[in-house]
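[recover] target loaded
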């Protein structure tokens, strides 16, 4: 692990299968236990309508700000391992998920390859990403659109958030027990 480059990333977390709240809490615990990772901020949790395939359970969504020494692709691999460890079953695109961990932003990187696009291309269309992101980092400027994320919230046409079910988690995650 290269310990010279500390990166900041924002991760979108979602769950609509099983115990959704416990799935989110467990993912935070596992992320916090990864070597070289620190959780800086966690948003409130929001109950949201499903995006894409709308014939499924409502989601719980949150955004977490982390630091890591992982490069982008190693972070992605680690998040996919966590999803699998927490019981994610691969289904159709935008289908039900026990846990979904998406890299939304990585430093101020603008990047695309066959595996990942950053910033995550769906951010500007999804209130369930922008609202919690704005909550924990209101002055963050989207590196492509050059606008604060809070400004982008008002431009969303389709609203998926039904309600806020928790206040922001206070980190560290020692208050969250791994199940």
């Amino acid at each position: 692990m290269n310990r010279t480059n500390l990166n900041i990333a924002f991760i979108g977390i979602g769950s609509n299968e099983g115990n959704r709240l416990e799935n989110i809490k467990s993912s935070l615990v596992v992320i916090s236990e990864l070597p070289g990772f620190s959780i800086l901020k966690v948003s409130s949790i929001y109950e949201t309508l499903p995006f894409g395939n709308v014939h499924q359970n409502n989601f719980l969504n949150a955004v977490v700000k982390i630091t890591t020494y992982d490069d982008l692709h190693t972070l992605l691999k680690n998040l996919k391992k966590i999803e699998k460890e927490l019981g994610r079953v691969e289904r159709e695109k935008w289908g039900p998920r026990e846990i979904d961990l998406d890299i939304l932003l990585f430093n101020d990187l603008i990047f695309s390859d066959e595996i990942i696009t950053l910033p995550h291309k769906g951010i500007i269309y999804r209130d369930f990403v922008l609202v919690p992101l704005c909550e924990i980092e209101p002055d963050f400027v989207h590196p492509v659109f050059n606008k604060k994320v809070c400004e982008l919230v008002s431009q969303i046409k389709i609203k998926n958030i039904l309600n806020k079910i928790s206040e922001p988690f206070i980190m560290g995650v020692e208050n969250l027990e791994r199940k």
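[recover] notes: The mean pLDDT is 88.
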